[in-house]
TrEMBL record:
Protein name according to UniProt: Coagulation factor XIII A chain
SMART domains: TGc (SM00460)
Known partners and oligomeric status: Tetramer of two A chains (F13A1) and two B (F13B) chains.
Cofactor stoichiometry and binding remark: Binds 1 Ca(2+) ion per subunit.
Gene3D superfamilies: Immunoglobulins, Transglutaminase-like
Class of the enzyme per the UniProt entry, highest EC level: transferase
InterPro entries xrefs: Ig-like_fold, Ig_E-set, Papain-like_cys_pep_sf, Transglutaminase, Transglutaminase-like, Transglutaminase-like_sf, Transglutaminase_animal, Transglutaminase_AS
Localization of this protein: Cytoplasm; Secreted
Organism of derivation: Trogon melanurus
SUPFAM superfamilies with a match to the protein in the record: Cysteine proteinases (SSF54001), E set domains (SSF81296), Transglutaminase, two C-terminal domains (SSF49309)
Catalytic residues in the record: 322, 381, 404
Cofactor field: Ca(2+)
Length: 736
C-alpha cells in the first residue's frame, strides 16, 4: 500500500519552481498529514505503544470565564476554541495514562500551521519543557502535578505568526516518536498582543487598548467641514466566525504564512484585499448612485454581514464607499489584535497627478469647465490608522500608520495604500514607504483656479491654500465624542514648520508646480465669501453672498452662483441652480446678497448623501480680476427612533421598536430597514412596500441579548428617494 499512497500524494502536490524546496505556503486552512508513530527504524515485534507514556486527554482552559481568555483579553470572542495573544504565557493540562516521571519520560509539544510546516519558517514549532520561561520566546514549564496530570505554562514568541495552529503532543520512545491524533478541539488561535512590550503592536495606555482593540462599535464622522455628521458603525470583531473570516482574507491575499507575524505586511496586503479591484476582494465600490443587484453603501450598519457574506460566497459584496471600506478594515485589524481607528479627513484632495495642486478650470464667464477639471475634492474621506513599530524605517516613524482600503489609485500595480507613517507625512519625509506622497497630497493640496484666455494662455485667477485637509478627526477614546487629530498630520497653516515640511516633501519628490508672482496678482482689496443656511431635506433654504470692499473705490461685481448636486467625492452629477447678478460695492463697506434655493429645484435629482456643492465666482468689472469660492453643504436628514420595552437581561427575551416619520412630500417606496447590535441581536432586515408622506412606520422585533454590559443598537433606513437615515440607542444589558 505504501507505493500506491505515494502516487496519490504526488498528484496533490502543486508543481515546484526551481527556487524553492517547498511550494509557497499561504493558506491557514490547509493541513499536512502528521504520523502518529514516527519510527526510527525497524520496530521489534513485541513493541506495544501502550507500554509507554501516552496522552489520555488535553484540557485547554478555553472557556470565556477561564484563566486563558481572561488574562489574554480574548473572552469576548464568540468561539469555543482557545484564543491567546502572542508573547504572553497561557496554560493547558495534559492527562497521561500514568503519572509522568521526568527521569524516564520525555515529551514535547508541537504547534503546526499550514500545509508545509517548517521550523525555519515558524510554521513548525517544537516546544520543549524546561525549568524557566524566557519572556517573548517559545517554551513550556510544568507548574502543577497531580496524579496522572500535569499543568503546563506555555510562552509563545512575541513575533509568532498570527493564525490558527494545530497542537500535537509527542512522546519519545526507544523505537520512535508517538504523537496524539489530530484533534480540532485543541486548535489554538494566536493573535497580536498590544499588552506585550515585545510585540510590534504594543500600546502602553490601557484606555487606548480598551478603545482601539476591544471596542466593537465605533463612530464614522461624515457630512462636510461646515456641517459635521456622525453615525455609529458596528465593527463586531468578536462575533461568531468573524475571526475565521479575517484569517481567510489573508489566505485570499496569498500572504505567505511566514509573513503573518509582521503587522506591516498584513496591513499592506489587507488594504488591497478589502476592495474588489484587481483581486476579487471583499467589497465592490460604487459611486454612481446606481446600486442595482446590490445593497446601497448607506444601508450597511456594520462589518459583520459583509465579512460573513464574503467568507461564504468568496465573491465581492456589493456595494461600498469609503466609510464601508474603512469600517470593514477596522474590524479586520482589531480582530487580529492590531490597534486601529477610523479617521475622517474633511475636504480631502483626490489629486490625479499628485502635484499637490488641484486644478479647477474656469471658462471665459468664470464658470467651472467640468470637461477640463479632472481633480476633485471629497467632502470627506475615511481611512484607517493602525498602531505599530516600523523597524523598516529610521527611528521615530513608528506609531500610527495610515492604511486605506478604498480604491483610489494604484500602488506598486495594485489598488492599495499604506502603511504610511503619520509622523513622516507631518514632517514631509514622504520618501519612506508606503504611499506617503499620496496621503500627503490628500491633506496638503492647494486649489488653483485658472482660466484659459481666448488666445489659449492660462491665467491663474485664484489660489486657495487652506481648503484641503482642514480638519482630520476620529472618535474620542472612551466616549462618543470627536477628537481632532489635524495636528498629527500637519503643522499650523502658515507656520515656518509647515513651509519646511512642504520643502522637504518637494525635495523627496512630491511634485509641486511653482507659480510665478508675475502671473498671479489677485484682487486683494475685496473679500468675497458665502454662507449656506442649514436646511432640512425637503425644505427651501438660502445662500448668502457677502462682499467686503476694503478700498476707496466703487466696484461692480458680476457674480455667478452655480449649485451642483454632488457625490460626497465632490464629483458633480448635475447643475440644478444657475443664478447671476450684478453687485454694487460701495467703498469701505460690506454688502450681502441672498439667493433662494427651492426644494422643487433639487429634490428630483438628489443623491444619497443629500450633498450640494456651491461655486461662487465674481468678476470685478473695473479690474477684470476674479474672486472664487467653493463650499459643500449637506441637508439635515431625518433620523430613526429606537426604543426598548421591559427589562433587558442577558438570556431573556426583550423587545426593540424602530420608528420613522416620512418628511418628504412624496410616498417612499421599497423601503428597507436594518437593525443590529453586537452582543444583543444579529442583523435583522424588514422590507416595507410604501410609506406615504408624513406617515409613521413602526417595526417591533424580539431578541435575546447574550452579553451583559453597555451595548449599542444601530438601525438604518434605505430607499431610492432617501438614504443615510440612521438611528442608534445605548442599552444597558443586566447580568442574569
Amino acid at each position: 500500500t505504501s507505493e500506491t499512497m505515494s502516487t496519490n500524494e504526488d498528484k496533490k502536490k502543486p508543481p515546484l519552481n526551481g527556487r524553492r524546496a517547498f511550494p509557497s505556503d499561504s493558506s491557514n486552512d490547509e493541513e499536512n498529514e502528521v504520523p502518529e508513530m514516527e519510527a526510527f527504524g525497524l520496530i521489534p515485534r513485541g513493541f506495544n505503544p501502550r507500554d509507554y507514556l501516552h496522552v489520555v486527554d488535553i484540557y485547554m482552559f478555553k472557556d470565556p470565564h477561564e484563566i486563558n481568555k481572561q488574562q489574554h483579553h480574548t473572552d469576548k470572542y464568540y468561539s469555543p476554541k482557545l484564543i491567546v495573544r502572542r508573547g504572553q504565557p497561557f496554560q493547558i493540562q495534559i492527562e497521561f495514562n500514568r503519572p509522568y516521571n521526568p527521569e524516564v519520560d520525555q515529551f514535547w509539544l508541537e504547534y503546526l500551521i499550514g500545509r508545509y510546516p517548517q521550523q525555519n519558517k515558524g510554521t513548525y514549532i517544537p516546544v520543549l519543557v524546561g525549568s524557566v520561561l524566557k519572556p517573548g520566546e517559545w517554551g513550556a514549564k510544568i507548574i502543577h502535578k497531580e496524579n496522572n496530570s500535569i499543568r503546563l505554562s506555555i510562552m509563545s514568541s512575541a513575533t509568532c505568526i498570527i493564525g490558527k495552529f494545530r497542537l500535537y503532543v509527542a512522546v519519545l520512545t526507544p523505537f520512535g516518536i508517538l504523537r496524539t491524533q489530530r484533534n480540532a478541539a485543541t486548535d489554538t488561535y494566536i493573535l497580536f498582543n498590544p499588552w506585550c512590550q515585545q510585540d510590534a503592536v504594543y500600546l502602553d495606555d490601557d484606555k487606548e487598548r480598551e478603545e482601539y482593540v476591544l471596542n466593537d462599535v465605533g463612530i464614522v464622522f461624515h457630512g462636510n467641514i461646515n456641517d459635521i455628521k456622525l453615525r455609529s458603525w458596528s465593527y463586531g470583531q468578536f462575533e461568531e466566525n468573524i475571526l475565521d473570516a479575517c484569517l481567510f482574507l489573508m489566505n485570499k491575499a496569498e500572504l505567505e504564512l511566514s509573513g503573518r507575524g509582521n503587522p506591516i505586511k498584513i496591513c499592506r496586503v489587507a488594504s488591497a484585499v478589502i476592495n474588489s479591484k484587481d483581486d476579487n476582494g471583499v467589497i465592490a465600490g460604487c459611486w454612481d448612485n446606481m446600486y442595482a443587484y446590490g445593497i446601497a453603501p448607506s444601508a450597511w450598519t456594520g462589518s459583520v454581514d459583509i465579512l460573513l457574506e464574503y467568507y461564504s460566497s468568496k465573491q465581492p459584496v456589493r456595494y461600498g464607499q469609503c466609510w464601508v471600506f474603512a469600517g470593514v478594515f477596522n474590524t479586520f485589524l482589531r480582530c487580529l489584535g492590531i490597534p486601529a481607528r477610523l479617521v475622517t479627513n474633511y475636504s480631502s484632495a483626490h489629486d490625479n497627478n499628485a502635484n499637490l495642486q488641484l486644478d479647477f478650470f474656469l471658462d471665459d464667464e468664470g464658470k467651472l469647465d467640468t470637461k477640463l477639471t479632472k481633480d476633485s475634492v471629497w467632502n470627506y474621506h475615511c481611512w484607517n490608522e493602525a498602531w505599530m513599530t516600523r523597524p523598516d524605517l529610521p527611528v521615530g516613524f513608528g506609531g500610527w500608520q495610515v492604511v486605506d482600503g478604498t480604491p483610489q489609485e494604484t500602488s506598486d500595480g495594485m489598488y492599495r495604500c499604506g502603511p504610511a507613517s503619520v509622523q513622516a507625512i507631518k514632517h514631509g519625509h514622504v520618501c519612506f514607504q508606503f504611499d506617503a506622497p499620496f496621503v500627503y497630497a490628500e491633506v496638503n493640496g492647494d486649489i488653483v483656479y485658472s482660466r484659459r484666455e481666448k488666445n489659449g494662455t492660462q491665467v491663474i485667477e485664484n489660489i486657495d491654500r487652506t481648503h484641503i485637509g482642514q480638519l482630520i478627526v476620529t472618535k474620542a477614546v472612551g466616549s462618543d465624542g470627536m477628537m481632532e487629530i489635524t495636528e498629527e498630520y500637519k503643522f499650523q497653516e502658515g507656520s515656518e514648520e509647515e513651509r519646511l515640511a512642504l520643502e522637504t516633501a518637494v525635495m523627496y519628490g512630491v511634485k509641486k508646480q511653482t507659480i510665478q508672482d508675475t502671473m498671479y496678482q489677485p484682487q486683494t482689496d475685496v473679500d468675497m465669501d458665502f454662507q449656506v443656511q442649514k436646511a432640512i431635506l425637503g425644505s427651501d433654504f438660502k445662500v448668502t453672498i457677502t462682499f467686503r470692499n476694503k478700498s476707496r473705490n466703487y466696484y461692480t461685481a458680476t457674480t455667478y452662483l452655480a449649485g451642483n448636486i454632488v457625490f460626497y467625492t465632490g464629483v458633480a452629477k448635475n447643475e440644478f441652480k444657475k443664478h447671476s447678478f450684478s453687485a454694487k460695492l460701495e467703498p469701505s463697506s460690506s454688502s450681502a446678497f441672498d439667493v433662494v434655493i427651492k426644494s422643487s429645484e433639487y429634490l428630483s435629482d438628489l443623491l444619497d448623501q443629500a450633498s450640494f456643492h456651491f461655486f461662487v465666482t465674481a468678476r470685478i468689472n473695473e479690474t477684470g480680476k476674479i474672486l472664487a469660492k467653493q463650499k459643500a453643504t449637506v441637508l439635515e436628514i431625518p433620523t430613526l427612533r429606537i426604543k426598548t420595552k421591559g427589562e433587558m437581561v442577558a438570556g431573556k427575551e426583550m423587545s426593540v421598536t424602530v420608528e420613522f416619520t416620512n418628511p418628504l412630500k412624496q410616498t417612499l417606496e421599497n423601503v428597507t430597514l436594518r437593525l443590529e447590535g453586537p452582543g444583543v441581536l444579529r442583523t435583522m432586515k424588514k422590507e416595507f412596500r410604501q410609506i406615504p408622506a408624513n406617515s409613521t412606520l413602526i417595526w417591533e422585533v424580539k431578541c435575546i441579548p447574550n452579553r451583559p454590559g453597555l451595548r449599542k443598537l444601530i438601525a438604518s433606513l434605505n430607499c431610492d428617494a432617501l438614504r443615510h437615515v440612521y438611528g442608534e440607542l445605548n442599552v444597558q444589558i443586566q447580568k442574569p
